[in-house]
Amino acid sequence: MSRKPGMFLSLSTMSFTIWAAVILLMMISQAEAYDPLDPFGNITIKWDVVSWTPDGYVALVTMNNFQMYRHIMSPGWTLSWGWAKKEVIWSMVGAQTTEQGDCSKFKGNVPHCCKKNPTVVDLLPGVPYNQQIANCCKGGVVASWGQDPSSAVSSFQVSVGLAGTTNKTVKLPTNFTLLGPGPGYTCGPAKIVPSTVYLTPDRRRKTQALMTWNVTCTYSQVLVSKNPRCCVSFSSFYNDSITPCPTCSCGCQNKKDCIMSDSNKLKNVGINTPRKDNAPLLQCTHHMCPIRVHWHVKINYREYWRVKVAVTNFNYRMNYTQWTLVAQHPNLNNVTQVFSFDYKPLVPYQSINDTAMFYGMKFYNDLLMEAGPYGNVQTEILLKKDKDIFTLKQGWAFPRKIYFNGDECQLPPPDAYPILPNSAHKNLIFSFSILEGLMFLLFLVVV
Known about the structure:
Residues 1-33 form the signal peptide. Its main location: membrane. By secondary structure, the protein is an alpha+beta fold. It folds into 2 domains: 43-222, Immunoglobulin-like (Sandwich), CATH 2.60.40; 225-421, Immunoglobulin-like, CATH 2.60.40.290. Helices cover 13% and strands 33% of the residues. Strands 1, 2, 4, 7, 9, 10 and 13 form a 7-stranded antiparallel beta sheet that branches. It has a 6-stranded mixed beta sheet with strand order 15-14-16-17-24-20, with no helix packed on it.
C-alpha cells in the first residue's frame, strides 16, 4: 500500500485538533458552571450514617444551599441517584420517593422503594409530626445563603436495606442528579469526608456520624436555557429616550403562545394556573422575557445620586417567592440608603466591593406577583459620590451586570445607552466640522 506524502502529518494534525477541541469544550463547560459574582456558591448534599441496621444503615441526608443569591423555589427540589448494589429503601422520614418500583420479591414487610434509581422529593408543609424531622417538609423550597442562612437547608432521613453494615462494606451511591426545580445543576461523585460531629442538647458531649460522604452540585445557566431568562432596560433624567430591552432578549420561538394583556382572555380557565413543569405563559412583548429589570438614573445631587429600580413580571403563571436581584456597579461600595428593599453587599473578592444583593422585605414585597397590575416591585437607591470616578458620561451610571434569581439578564448594547445632551452636542459639532471640511475640499477641486 502506497502512502501519500504528508499522510502522517495530516493524521497527527487531525489528532491534535480533536484533542484541542476536547480540552476547549472541557474549559467552556467548567467556565459555564463558574459564577464570578459567587465563586464558591454550590449546593452540598451530605450523607451521615447515624446507625447500622441488620441489613444496612440509617442515614441523615442534609442539603445545604451555599449559593449567595440563587435559591430553589416552588415546586421545589428533586434528588435522584443510582444504587451501587441492590439496595432498597425501607422507610423515609421528611421526604418520599416518587415511585415505589417493583417490590414483588418481598413478602411481609414491603420496602418504601425498590427502584435502582430512586427519585426523592420533599414533603409538603403540614404533614403529621411523626413524618417530620428538622429542616424538612417545606415543599422543596430552599432559601439562598445570602438571603436567609437558617432556611438555606433541607433534610430527610432514609433507612437503606440490602447494603453494607460497616463503613468498609458500604458502597456509595452514584450518578446524583439535582433538579431545582428544573435543570441547571451538575453533581459530582460522592466523596468520603471526615465524619460529622454533633453536640448533645446540653452541649456537654460530642457524638459523631459513623460515616459521612458529600456530593457537590454546581449551577450553570446554559444548562437551563440557551437564552437569558430576564432582560434590562435603561432611562435617565438627562435624556427623554428610553433604552428598551433588546428585541428577543429571551428568544422569540414561543411568541405564538404569548397573549396580549386582554382582560377577556385572562378570564379563561387555566390561564393563571401554574403547570408542573413551570412552563411560562408570557405577555406578548418585543423582548419575550418573563422578567424585566428597569434601571433609571433619577436625580443627581451635589454629593449623592439616586437610582430607581423596578422589576416587572410578564409571566401569567408564576409568582416569584423569595426573589433576589443582584447588581454590579463600581459605586455600589457607597450605598447610603435603600428604600423598600432589603440590601446586602456581596464581596466575593475582598479587595472589590462593587456587587449588591437586593430582595423583598418579608410579608411586604418578598412575593413578586404574576403579570398584571400588581406584577412589579420597585425601590430607590441613594449612593454617595466618589468624586474620583463618578461621571454620567459614556453609560457609567448604568450597571455592568444584573442577575434575577441567580440568572444573568440580557443588557442593552453599550451604544444604545442614554447619552448626555452635551455629548450629543459635541457629536453634532464634530459632524458639522467634517461636513465643512468636505465642502472646502470640494470647493478646491472645483476651483
